[in-house]
Design goal:
heterodimer, A: 433 residues, alpha/beta, 3-methyladenine DNA Glycosylase II, Chain A, domain 3, elongated, B: 141 residues, alpha+beta, Heat Shock Protein 90, 5 helices
Chain lengths: 433, 141
């Protein structure tokens, strides 16, 4: 089992009121309320950020790096996710955003959309291998990959083993910077400008790679206000090679599928919708499909919980910008030698996360399941969350796992009290002989 | 030997809104038990097919999951109408699905052959006017 050591999503204890909002919304049932506050179960959390979105008290937060952290390196490069472009209405050209990033202190900028161009070509090459299971599943959304590890481990061999755009972008950016400035790789810090906590987690606890090419991630909401006053300078670098409209399109749901395999693909956004489609795939109901793109957030990365702009507005802004860009596909735009010059493939396989499993021993697991069934019969089935577990089913499982007991259910407790009260009345009415 | 896990799911005729719930729960239970890989995939496919068969073709019935230390068993029993010609029903591409079912993408005539292909052991008994019983076993080892 792959232990996830680091999580970007965390709890602000002082703000948590111990309500059931995040508890019942978590797609992997990774939250429990115990002792009046929420606890995130490290083994089940996929860092999708749903709890951050849902919490009225802002008690769920995403840990990201700050702009000061770039000073830990002699040189720093900003790698903006293409969803950053969607944060500005009427943005005519990404170069304004890139120059603004330079203005706030980065020594260089490299578009992750350019990384997406290269990855598009790399995935298309990978898809020539007909022995790989179909549909191939995108690995771009780390929350979806972690969801598959937890809930659909048997689909892991469908996940594309090509690196994420931010990783490929960082490899290229660092190598080009070192070549141009004659410095050593370790002197250069690569910082992703992230729309979500899942990417931050993927940098600290990489998926498919032993070590991330990135040194940190800065939240889009933190960067937004800082770059806004600098959005007026044109590109100073005459050799700048912009990404294609396809690479930028990865910011939105269907962007990757449209670039990689428009003729036979399915794209699904929103974590519960992703679960639904993966169930279909597991039931073998998605035949004749070549590529599957899943995004945990509604609308794709523009819907990330660390973005500023409304996801639909951001999508419209990006669509407007890309339609003005020339229609050149990465197959024509990315030189083929890029695929061999930089690392494209994962060096670590995606491993299943068996945190859902009751026990390693089948007989023990079956006994536990039977005990869960017995307990379930005594529970009201309201799924109210008052006990601190998301559903009655999960509560029964938590009891069997030894984490709580039946009296933590206020309904069971009330019934028990009723019986006890009646017994006390009966006792009080007993006449003295 | 007695089954260590036994769960019965009633399946109503023509209830397309809850179709897939029984097979979904079966899959969830197997995952909880740590049964994965090839067996999970085959049980998933077969349980979904057999549940859909109950919805589309039967007058109602039930699906029972049993887990033994050596194998998983699925039994589907319905109260009719029964299959007049079993060898014809087992043929790929042969279907009596209604237009309603076909409009939903079912009725490709692959249900029974698909179940047989995925189960380690497949048995079907049917009597017109009485009902159909399908027993499928999936070896764990």
């Amino acid at each position: 089992m792959e232990a996830i050591r680091y999580h970007s999503v965390r709890l602000d204890k002082d703000r948590c009121r111990g309500c059931t909002n995040c508890l019942t919304q978590c797609p992997t049932e990774a939250i429990r309320v115990r002792g009046g506050r929420a606890h995130i179960l490290d083994t089940l959390c996929i860092d999708c950020g749903e709890c951050i979105r849902i919490c009225d008290y802002h008690a769920k937060v995403a840990e990201t790096d700050s702009l000061e952290d770039i000073r830990k390196f002699k040189y720093s490069i900003a790698l903006p996710a293409p969803s950053l472009y969607g944060q500005f209405r009427n943005l005519r050209n990404p170069v304004y955003v890139l120059e603004a990033l330079r203005a706030i202190g980065f020594d260089d900028v490299f578009e992750v959309a350019r990384g997406a161009d290269v990855v598009t070509r790399a995935i298309r090459e990978r898809m020539r291998d007909t022995s790989l299971p179909r549909p191939m599943i995108s690995s771009a959304c780390p929350a979806v990959v972690r969801l598959i590890q937890v809930r659909f481990p048997d689909l892991l061999d469908h996940v594309v083993d090509v690196r994420q755009p931010m990783e490929v972008a960082a490899s290229i950016a660092r190598a080009e910077f070192c070549k141009a400035h004659g410095c050593r790789p370790e002197e250069v810090g690569c910082f992703f400008i992230t729309p979500c906590p899942a990417k931050m987690t993927a940098i600290r606890s990489p998926l498919g790679q032993a070590k991330s090419e990135l040194n940190g991630a800065i939240s889009m909401t933190d960067i937004y206000g800082l770059i806004l006053p600098h959005m007026d300078a044109m590109m100073k670098n005459p050799d700048f090679r912009p990404s294609t409209r396809y690479g930028v399109g990865w910011a939105m749901s269907n962007g990757e599928a449209n670039a990689v395999c428009p003729q036979s693909s399915l794209s699904v956004d929103g974590i519960t919708n992703v679960i639904g489609v993966l169930e279909e795939l597991e039931n073998d109901k998605l035949q004749d499909l070549e590529f599957l793109e899943g995004n945990a957030c509604i609308g794709g990365c523009v819907g990330g919980c660390l973005t500023f702009e409304n996801n639909y507005v951001a999508k419209a802004a990006i669509r407007k910008m890309v339609t003005a860009m020339p229609d050149v596909h990465p197959d024509q735009d990315v030189p083929v030698n890029m695929l061999t010059k930089y690392p494209m493939k994962n060096d670590v396989p995606f491993r299943p996360n068996d945190a859902m499993k009751l026990d390693d021993n089948l007989l023990v697991a079956m006994q536990m399941m039977n005990r869960m069934n017995e307990i379930m019969e005594r529970l009201p089935g309201y799924d109210c969350g008052s006990c601190g577990s998301p559903t009655c089913k999960t509560f029964a499982e938590d009891i069997v796992r030894g984490h709580c007991n039946e009296m933590d259910c206020i309904h069971v407790m009330r019934d028990k009290l009723k019986v006890m009260a009646q017994e006390m009345v009966a006792l009080a009415q007993t006449r003295r002989e | 030997m007695d089954a260590l896990i036994r769960q019965t799911y009633p399946v109503a005729s023509a209830d397309y809104t809850s179709a897939g719930q029984a097979s979904g729960d079966i899959k969830r239970r197997l995952k909880k038990l740590g049964i994965g890989g090839d067996v999970l995939r085959r049980v998933s496919v077969a349980s979904y097919e057999v549940e859909l068969n109950l919805v589309i073709h039967s007058l109602g019935g039930e699906l029972t999951l049993s887990v033994y230390p050596e194998y998983v068993e699925l039994v589907s029993r319905d109260v009719g109408p029964g299959i007049p010609d079993l060898s014809l029903a087992m043929r790929e591409g042969w279907s009596t699905a209604s237009d309603e079912a076909r409009s939903l993408g079912f009725g490709a005539g692959m249900g029974l052959p698909n179940m047989k292909r995925n189960a380690s052991d497949f048995e079907i008994k049917s009597e017109v006017g009485v009902g159909t019983e399908i027993t499928m076993k999936f070896n764990l080892a």
